[in-house]
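Researcher: Sit down with what I've pasted below and flag anything odd:
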Amino acid sequence: MNNYHFLKRVLILMLIIALPLHFTSCMESGQGVERQSESQTPVIGEYHFISGYEPLSADSLVNVVIEIPTGTNAKWEVEKESGHIEWEMRDGEPRVIDYIGYVGNYGMVPRTLAGDGDALDILVLGAPQNRGDIIQARLIGVLEMLDDGEQDDKLIAILPGSLFGEVQNLADLEQFYPSVSTIITLWFENYKGPNNGVEVLGLGDVHKAWEILSESMDRYK
């Protein structure tokens, strides 16, 4: 086994061991891995989650609609027409990611249009947020990737005032929290299983993240 595959296995094992400890507060608050028996009632916002909110706040933080809280694995998403957050269905059943829970709060940026025709995806590191929350996050980078040949980039951000609050970019993330960016990369490479059509192109810095966000905002217009 070469060094890369050995390191990859070790990191995944460390992630599996560490996540239950890191998200203890999540489990105590009643969140955690969601089951198909839970409510499938859509989350309805005050406004349409895609068109009803601005992509940026007044202080240049990114507005994020939370679809999937940290540590959970039920695949919810904003439905384009209704603007509600709904549990995605696959083969007549609510979709649950067959992998460990999301390594950050997963959501989308309102009034954006990514290369795959959906709103731009974003992963926000930090404590679990409620589905349907609209939070303000600071961009620190982007995971550039393809899904079945379509551009499917994932912005990476942090919550100001959280554990990651002092992180300004991916270099800071690596310095203060070694291998977190590697864990994010490995998670997206593997969460859909083998031969999943996902191709990770690499990590982009905060400037690249803003470039991708600006392009998606222009595309939405």
User: Anything to note?
Assistant: Residues 20-37 have pLDDT under 50 and may be disordered. The two ends are 49 Å apart (CA to CA). The chain has one domain: 3-31+40-220.
